[in-house]
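hey can u run this one w/ manganese (II) ion bound, need the structure tokens asap thx
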Amino acid sequence: MKEIKLEALPYAEDALAPAISAKTISFHYGKHHAGYVKTLNGLVAGTSYAELSLEEIVRTAAARGDAAIFNNAAQTWNHTFYWNSLAPAGKGGAPSAALLAAIEAAFGSFDACKAALADAAVKRFGSGWAWLVAENGKVKVESTPNAETPITRSGVKPLLVVDVWEHAYYLDWQNLRADYAKTVIGTLLDWNAASRRFG
Ligand code: MN
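ok here u go:
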């Protein structure tokens, strides 16, 4: 069988501090994310899922309604995408000309896009994710509950994500999700990566 691996962090655990501390990342990556990977490998062992890629497991489990496999596979994928949506402050660059044009067409301005993403992060009730996605070339903000992920919908390309589960911010920000979201969106998003994904 194919083992699903915990992908390495793209930076050191203290690289996003102080907005996201090394302590948060040590638990979030080392316990939560690693836990989803371990549970997923246990659930798919010996099943027809065992030969599939992670993306295929997410889509197949969503289609079949296999909740436990879906939740752990989607959380594995979403977390890897989250780590790769962030960059140390000052390293995330800016949207490419093509992405900026699509952002301005959709939101009016880059600042309005970031404000819409922060709003989605704040308004997601309970646990979930705030996403910037491209759908048929159009840039959109959306949020998903729990483990839900845009990759189950064809034609949707995730560009960036912000984790708004409490475990993502509680050690650093306690109840202040809006401050966490605004700081992450304002200083840590990897716009170079979003630009590559947008194409
Ligand atoms: Mn998380």
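The domain at 97-198 is CATH 3.55.40.20 (minor pseudopilin epsh fold). anyway lmk if its weird
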